[in-house]
Amino acid sequence: MSVDSACPAAGGPIPPGRLELADHTFHIGHLQVLDENGALIAKDAGGAPDLNPDQLIRLYRGMVLARAVDDRLLKLQRQGRIGTFAPATGQEAVSCAPVVAMRPEDWFVGSFRELGGRLLRGEPIDRSFLYYNGHEEGNTFDGGERTLPVAVIIACQMLHAVGIAYAMKLKGEDAAVVCFFGDGATSEGDFHEAMNFAAVWQAPVVFVCANNHWAISLPREKQTRSRTLAQKAIAYEMPGLQVDGNDALAVYQAVHEALARARAGGGPTFIEAVTYRLRMHTTADDPKRYRTEEEVKAWERRDPIPRLRKYLAARGVWNDEMQVNLDEEIRKEIEEAVKKFEEAEDFKPDAPFDHVFGIPHPRLEEQRADFLANLSREQGHE
Amino acid sequence: MSVDSACPAAGGPIPPGRLELADHTFHIGHLQVLDENGALIAKDAGGAPDLNPDQLIRLYRGMVLARAVDDRLLKLQRQGRIGTFAPATGQEAVSCAPVVAMRPEDWFVGSFRELGGRLLRGEPIDRSFLYYNGHEEGNTFDGGERTLPVAVIIACQMLHAVGIAYAMKLKGEDAAVVCFFGDGATSEGDFHEAMNFAAVWQAPVVFVCANNHWAISLPREKQTRSRTLAQKAIAYEMPGLQVDGNDALAVYQAVHEALARARAGGGPTFIEAVTYRLRMHTTADDPKRYRTEEEVKAWERRDPIPRLRKYLAARGVWNDEMQVNLDEEIRKEIEEAVKKFEEAEDFKPDAPFDHVFGIPHPRLEEQRADFLANLSREQGHE
Amino acid sequence: MSKLNMVQAINLALHEEMARDQNVVCLGQDIGVDGGVFRVTEGLLAKFGAERVLDTPLAESGILGSAIGMAIAGLRPVAEMQFSGFAYLMLGQLEGNAARYRARSQGRFTCPLVVRMPYGGGVRALEHHSESHEATFAHVPGVKVVMPSAPGNARALLAAAIRDPDPVVFMEPKRSYRAFREEVSDEPEVMEIGRAQVLREGSDLTVISWGAMMRPALQAVGEIEEQRGASLELIDLLTISPMDGETIAASVRKTGRCVIVQEAPFSLGPASEIIATINDKALLHLEAPVKRITGYDLTVPYFSREDMYLPSPGRVRRAIEETLDF
Amino acid sequence: MSKLNMVQAINLALHEEMARDQNVVCLGQDIGVDGGVFRVTEGLLAKFGAERVLDTPLAESGILGSAIGMAIAGLRPVAEMQFSGFAYLMLGQLEGNAARYRARSQGRFTCPLVVRMPYGGGVRALEHHSESHEATFAHVPGVKVVMPSAPGNARALLAAAIRDPDPVVFMEPKRSYRAFREEVSDEPEVMEIGRAQVLREGSDLTVISWGAMMRPALQAVGEIEEQRGASLELIDLLTISPMDGETIAASVRKTGRCVIVQEAPFSLGPASEIIATINDKALLHLEAPVKRITGYDLTVPYFSREDMYLPSPGRVRRAIEETLDF
Ligand SMILES: Cc1ncc(C[n+]2csc(CCOP(=O)(O)OP(=O)(O)O)c2C)c(N)n1
Ligand SMILES: Cc1ncc(C[n+]2csc(CCOP(=O)(O)OP(=O)(O)O)c2C)c(N)n1
Ligand SMILES: [Mg+2]
Ligand SMILES: [Mg+2]
Description:
The complex is a heterotetramer, with two copies of chain A and two copies of chain C.
Chain A: E1 25-27, E2 29-31, H1 53-78, H2 92-101, E3 107-109, H3 115-120, H4 125-132, H5 156-171, E4 177-182, H6 189-201, E5 205-211, E6 214-215, E7 218-219, H7 220-223, E8 240-244, H8 248-263, E9 269-274, H9 293-300, H10 304-315, H11 320-342, H12 351-354, H13 362-381
Parallel strand pairs in A: 2-8, 3-4, 4-5, 5-9, 8-9
Antiparallel strand pairs in A: 6-7
Chain C: E1 2-4, H1 6-20, E2 24-28, H2 44-48, E3 53-55, H3 60-72, E4 76-80, H4 91-98, H5 101-104, E5 114-119, H6 134-138, E6 144-146, H7 151-163, E7 168-173, E8 182-184, E9 197-200, E10 205-209, H8 214-228, E11 232-236, E12 239-241, H9 245-255, E13 258-261, H10 270-282, E14 291-293, H11 303-309, H12 313-325
Parallel strand pairs in C: 2-3, 2-4, 4-5, 5-7, 6-7, 10-11, 10-13, 13-14
Antiparallel strand pairs in C: 1-8, 6-12, 9-11
Helix pairs in contact in C: 1-7, 3-4, 8-12, 9-10
The complex binds thiamine diphosphate (TPP) (2 copies) and magnesium ion (2 copies).
One magnesium ion (MG) is lined by residues 182-184, 212, 214-215 of chain A.
């Protein structure tokens, strides 16, 4: 565990006078549990989180699966078998570790780069393929009653998370919300409104900001002038800290404690998880246009997966044979998912008309009839 | 001048663990020049601002005029001679002192409770009456080319201020922007986006937040959990401080220095001016529903006008005779304005059609013709 | 039975629905201690407590966005926009999420919520306090738009909106808030959303309106019937979306003539959709062009000029006469 | 003359206008280093520098709101929304300020700015990347809405939009970005905003469309003319607001029949306004109901189903046939 030194004064050149008063000082904490080689650091400051081998392996497996599915989706996309997709390679710790800290009754409110977390919450792989192939059918899954679908509008889901958290509190449920978003999201008005509402309502929500250094082509430093994203929590009198987002144990520990506090009525927490997007923004993006190979290389060395694996090996709960078996198991699982995805049944063409309103209305039914008539004519044509 | 002690840690109860890291600390400055009796405090820390008697009297006169116009508008409203209006009694220091710090080439971007500042920028009183009587004609004035009209949508004008400031910077003009808004505005998404853009662009803009403790019926403490509004500047790495907003000299000094910094390329500053709205939110509001007489009384004792007057008297630039003359002068000025307002010429009924687009279009002209035809028919009818 | 104005009738519905279903919560600016700037939510805080009646910070997207979360989690939030002029600030959440969760999740996640907002001109208000932008909401698939015109239907439609499984924008004609009273039943009442109401039957011409414009429409209809003994049918649209095309078409098929009275700007308002619906379903019965009396394609002028912007009974009367005489 | 696709043509106009007037600045997400996610702004940063080509933080209201300030202060900002689906987030600034500063200040403060945005479906994109919501903008008084359909008019209308003294929403059919090329003049070209264009003259029926739908409309028109020798008039609307009612009415007065092809949802789209305009100005010439082929009142379905949502040449063809045979 390490702690940033207090930040020095901020702002541009200050003319002599009393405006130095505007020159506030502040201090932001930083949590790291494993060093880049997977060794425990600062044992005296708390040591490893209280996770048993099963939990550790569940977390590790989730991250390996996430990486493998990412690889496979990328291939499927290149073959034209799915549409646009946003790889998350390098960010597996941020999306998986919180899920291990969550209980089933907690809510998962994600953005669009947390497929790893979604799979760990129980989403079948083939349904995620369906989603990326343009089917609403891929957006929910049985057992996912508290896992919201992908949110594309940046930061919008943060307010839903706050509303859900408020509802949990009002209903007296012993449940909290974990909400994911990126560094870019911190610029949106909805980020601000959600942070403020959460703090005012002391809503049981944990905000996990995956600061992966880029919002498409915009580097983190141009997204906002603040030196950390965590310091934004100060604006709302909300606890906030930075964690090493490529250190799965640090992410776990921070979310675990923040969830405990939220459930205990202690309100929201803001966690800036510092990580890196190793691949393109989406399959439609060419990162060579805006960033260097060296930068990517530097971050490859901080890859969260080998890091956790080394820790597990050192703790004696993982070995090479287990890895070989896991790789094979996952390979098979994905192959089966691809098969299931490609053999997927015919989808009801007019399903969208079923899901406009819960109560049918003639105006929509007329349109459905027109749609079906056209459909049968066009199919007759071919 | 006084300085707040560093704020203690924030957040709800924290379970034992490492989340204490989230428990950031910070420090926010507070500027006050005059005590509540108008005496200079903390002379050693800088003393009074460098204002000559003419400037001091201009500031004082502006505040007295603002108060008198407020009184008169309230009467006019009660007589049904104007529409809804938002009194600013008690907040004269916040709206007038910045104008004394500004140059004509600086931009004034206000909200709706800075009539005092507008008058000091040169708006004729009778035009402000026109505005409150529902005429667009009251929204601009000759010489007001850099004074934007009233902005009703809370916080929206902050972004305009940032854009104008950016334009000044791009064009290399030696001009800055002063932007006004209230405590309630800090909750809006546009506040956040404007603060962030201003900091990222290092735009020459000074944000003056009139924290008057209420947003209609919502007290400041429920608007946001943060103990100061000034600390919100930390989120953007922007200098920010609190000033005593009923201390005209403190407001002047902070804005003066912030403008100097902005013009020098030092970027934006956030000033929280702590003040109080002594009257109703607008003439449609009944503050008795949500706040106590005692609270109002307590703030009446901190009235910015007698405070500045005592300071001027102590400095020997003001006396009772001057006050009598000023009161009479202002009375006359307002009477003349009322007269002018009530004798105002007939307004072009179809003016709105002139100001939809700069280039006429048949669709609008058809509608204008219809409008005029109806007008003449209805006038014939009566 | 008691005689209530619209503010009281809406307030009654809120009380009834909050008492009926503990999942109903209200949130918005100044709706608690203050009872709302129009006093529509008066008494709710005292009765149901601060956990169910939330005075929120000043943030429209925040209000609707958190209401969406509440709805997903099983509550039935009733959000207030202080004025419809500020509702654009939450349109991102409305169109992007409230309207879409059902489609996005094929019905697993839904947003049963209501966004109440006073709309419209005629009360000598400041800028942004006089708009009538129902078409903007009504063009968003997945959102229902309801506009009551009188105390009785306001109360019954608000109850329906709160019970509806989907997001409903509920636009209250502020000009009619205290303009008149109506007998309102002591029993809770619920009307069907999506159905227009034929207020008066007639055979010569159909007048269609909604919300605050029902008053000038009614006045003009009365005057014309009296003056020329014409038989006019008057339809209160009540729901803007989904629109009740059948009631409109059935009436125009019968009368062959139609005048629409709309407060919104001329172009792309509900009147255009009504005309298009008549074109689709009743064109051959038309004996004259449908006439639309509307606001103009102007920002609503400040109140010194708003009377000449708003459709007046005179304008409506002339339109009816011209259409009858066509 | 060179043959350009629409991306290149828009890029050319941006280069030309930035070179012509140093007050023109561009701002938006990823428009600088990245050249825009569709490469529309490629090369601008290198040519005009980071002070005039701004990669902004991720905030739509921030982009438009600051552009408004820039415009007031004498710049000519061209703001990009990365996708029109996110444009709702800036509608508060558009309706509340860009559209109103002129009216509010009786012409003293104006907002000469352009908001460019790719819109529409057909590119197998994620949610919120396929909408066609021009009617929402077009219902805002004080805002112009322009929708080019081809490289040439895109280039000339964008130049006009940048020179226009008022806010213009410029909606680019992303589906047509690279779909085809056109000869484009080497000299800067400017077209008039607010005028529809008669692309083909004909006497039997008028087809009206705009933006991406011009392609299926054109295809259907070609097929019908070939198959049945009918004489069809084809109108490219180009400007949605203010709408060119005269060109529409003149054509329908001549042909008596009309089919409208619109990508937007059925209810309250531009097609409804066109029908209302025909009702106002040409009803007596109609020999058949006007037919509108549109999207449905659905959230645009995910791309696996979007083809059946989007008007196809087949749907247009059948509508033309039915209307001719009516
Ligand atoms: C409101 C909104 N504006 C723009 C976009 C287009 N867009 C998609 S992802 C993205 C960048 C997001 O950056 P960040 O929040 O850091 O998340 P990351 O992609 O790095 O995971 C943008 C601009 C969007 N989806 N939503
Ligand atoms: C976006 C928006 N929402 C709501 C309102 C209605 N309203 C007008 S003033 C006000 C309170 C403003 O509070 P504050 O910012 O503290 O300014 P003050 O009135 O205290 O000067 C509200 C809610 C508005 N004008 N704009
Ligand atoms: Mg990022
Ligand atoms: Mg206030």
